[in-house]
Amino acid sequence: MWVLVVVLLVALMIPITAILLDSPLGRSFARRLEGRSFARRLDQGDGGGAGSGAGVRKLEQRVETLETDLEDLNRSIAGMREELQFVQRLLEDPGKKKRPT
């Protein structure tokens, strides 16, 4: 009986994990972890100097990641703005819809 429960639990956790990791939240978390490891490498001196080719490439990757995050946030804000406008229209005049008589 317990074996069946464990098998079902594992079988259900696989798609849930995949969905969470592929979501914007999962990507953001992965980028944040990547940024921490990048900062740690720079602190340890593994990232090269500011003028070295490796350091510049890493900084370019970091800027690209930040730009991608900014684009994601802009899309999210635009979606929230549309949702807010929709809700405001509904709240402003709920009797505007004609009811069938």
Largest β-sheet summary: none
What is the helix content? over 70%
* Number of distinct helices: 3
What would the average pLDDT be, to the nearest integer?
A: 80
- Given helix and strand content, the structural type is mainly alpha
Indicate the radius of gyration in whole angstroms: 23 Å
Tell the overall outline.
Answer: flat
Span between N and C termini?
58 Å
Tally of domains: 1
Q: Can you characterise this structure?
A:
This protein has 101 residues and is an all-alpha fold. It has one domain (21-91). It is 81% helix and 0% strand. Helix 2 (24-44) packs antiparallel against helix 3 (53-92). It is flat, with a radius of gyration of 23 Å.
Brief overview:
The chain is mostly helical and 101 residues long.
Key phrases:
3 helices; 101 residues; mainly alpha
Give the topology, please:
Layout: H1 2-22, H2 24-44, H3 53-92
